[in-house]
Amino acid sequence: MPALWIAHVTVTDEAAYGKYAAIATEAIAEHGGTFIARGGRYVQLEGKERPRNVVARFPSVEAAEACYNSERYQEALSHARGASERELLIVETTE
Fold first, then answer.
1. Residues of the chain with pLDDT under 50
2. 65 exposure class (CB count in 10 Å sphere: 0-12, 13-18, 19+)
3. pTM of the model
4. How many beta carbons lie within 10 A of that of residue 27, not counting itself?
5. Tell me, what's the pLDDT at 95?
6. b/e map of 28-50 (b: 16 or more CB within 10 Å)?
7. Residue 5: its H or E element
8. How far apart (Å, rounded) are the C-alpha atoms in residues 27 and 74?
9. Chain mean pLDDT for the chain
10. From CA 14, how far away is CA 16, in angstroms rounded?
């Protein structure tokens, strides 16, 4: 079943996070991920507000998790650490 990769982010260093985004985009595509929301308008109803929200669809939870654990994504993540505050989760869809 497909899965969604959902990230809620506050960027604290735009330059470093830009490096993350460029590499992460490639890693996500390499694992069959496609973006369905990326930093668009949002309405915060509950919880901690994060101004950047990203949703990517993957073929499965396993594909999304493999992406996260991949060498390429970990390279990207090295640029995000210290340049952002983030929450990231993978959730299986019913479609």
1. none
2. middle
3. 0.91
4. 19
5. 79
6. beebbbeeeeeeeeeeeeeeeeb
7. strand 3-11
8. 9
9. 96
10. 6
Strands (E) located in 19-95: 34-38, 52-58, 84-92
Six-digit token string for 84 = 């952002």
Q: What SS3 state is found at 22? A: helix
Q: What is the pLDDT of residue 38?
A: 93
At position 27, the amino acid (one-letter code) is A
Q: Looking up tokens 């930093």, which residue turns up? A: 39
The H or E element containing residue 19 is helix 14-30
Q: Which amino acid is at 34?
A: T
Q: How far is the C-alpha of 89 from the C-alpha of 6, rounded, in Å?
A: 5
Q: Hunting for tokens 């019913």 — which residue is that? A: 94
The reported pLDDT for the residue numbered 20 is: 97
Residue 8 tokens, joined? 């809620």
Query: Which tokens belong to 65?
Result: 């998790």
